[in-house]
Amino acid sequence: MPHRCVLCSAQQHDNLCSACRTALPELNPSCCSLCLTPLPTFTHCGTCLNTPPLWHNIVAGYRYAFPVDVMIQKLKYGLDLTLTPILANFIVSKINHNRLPDAIIPVPLHPEKMKTRGFNQAIEISRYVSKQTDIPVLSHICLRVKNTPSQIELPWKKRQQNVRNAFTCQSDLTNKHIAILDDVMTSGATANALAKAIIKRGAAKVSVWVVARSLLSPKNQSTSQSLPQFPDECL
Ligand SMILES: [Zn+2]
Ligand SMILES: [Zn+2]
Question: Could you tell me the pTM of the whole model?
Answer without folding.
Answer: 0.89
